[in-house]
């Protein structure tokens, strides 16, 4: 090898090893030991779109006897590299603690620092206690907000703290995956020999477990020091990609790479309360209902007596009570499992959290003779309830279950747009757990299913004039969740603004004679009807005329464009679209080639799609039928679902070729 070749090889070696060293996987983190190479890093090769990179996320959990009994302690140390401007918000750190029913958490020993490279030297910006801002979010939750100073693109930030918690029954999950890439996530769990914990690995991204170890620890019990065996388990994941949400999933938390920790058994005189949903609900009942499920609503006496005098029919009474609470109360946007204030105060203030509003509904329904119980659950955004893991922390939403003529009707009065018996989309999260004084019913799970579809039907008549302008009439019928969305849209704007937004969707569109029905009454049919004219919708190409009859149908983008999918498709409700268009061609025009009918059916009655054009003299009739009936499609069904949507969406780009007959 000649000298020049050796030189090139050495240069290449140093470039490669220098880049590799900048992203070396740390075995551990030492606070303040920041490498110049990491500060020089400008991009993360495995994901060049990343705006920041977690160099290390290290946690060490141990157990000890505190002043109030057994506690667990989590030492956490995080180091982050800021790569782009969009990553600067990583310097805004929020540490949450919870406290309820005598149990609680605290955060101490907070350290933080910011490192920048100035004239080739590492400059450290120290953390000050004044940078911590304490915020009481709810009765249960307190946030400690930390804003690290002088953070810029290229900075490295790090922070550490100690979490002490009495929630030894269900310690916090170790979440390894974030919305930015993670070079190393390391978690160590040191459990006393008296306790056995079940650690559940994530389904979609497994965190490798390393070889376990055994050690000893001195514990003070009844003022005496005892040596206890400690079982040490370790997990370490490397080069974890950023979590990228896919269209139509529930909460990202359901899919993140994480370790869920639960107490399985104990020889220390402790009885795990997390193994029983009835006990979890009894604990909530003691805090919310003073040990019973009865809810006093004497302050609503006049309104409820008027409803009872009006009708003896239970369904009619239920609708009237639901309408009373729904129309009077305004949801403040907060979830939870406890009241924000006494119910009388919430009722008089006409606002409250989800618990306040739906407890008022439950109490009022019981008062008019309709047996109603609280249904505790979660939301699609927050995550699914795991039935085999009875934890209070999973229950952050409350609904009502009314029993009428042998039927159970789930109600939620927090939305002003949902009719009786229809739940807001956020509440459609598979299942909830029932609270009751009846031991046979308390803790029973109830399926939460949508009772209506997202249903739109469009009838349209169009006439192509000799000047190639188009005029016609459009009638749209909305049902179910489509009607809810339409009412919120049309009532949330001035009518002129609403029509202007429709006209702006199509260049040259002019709307006249607009009429609507059912916009202010959610129990009426929701229909809008208008005439329209539009110019320049037909394009002349050579001796052909190109016309797309779908120009007045505002379809959203196809959500399934990726080749593969990591997570299941989970729809909140089924979808139904039916379009019937009639197009009258001008005299002397004809269709070059009439498109063939298209049809596709998904397996297991999952959905269907049909597209057909019928020609009768100069009249074209378009029939389009699209249904998606199943709510969940697994990843192995994604390819056929993707093809199904591609066929359906392709009609948006399927124009007709017209020709002028000589």
From TrEMBL:
Signal peptide annotation: 1-22
Family matches, as Pfam families: DUF3857
Domain of life: Bacteria
Keywords, sorted A to Z: Signal
Domain DUF3857: 76-198
Keyword Electron transport listed: no
Name of this chain's protein: DUF3857 domain-containing protein
The organism's taxonomic lineage, starting at the top: Bacteria, Pseudomonadati, Bacteroidota, Cytophagia, Cytophagales
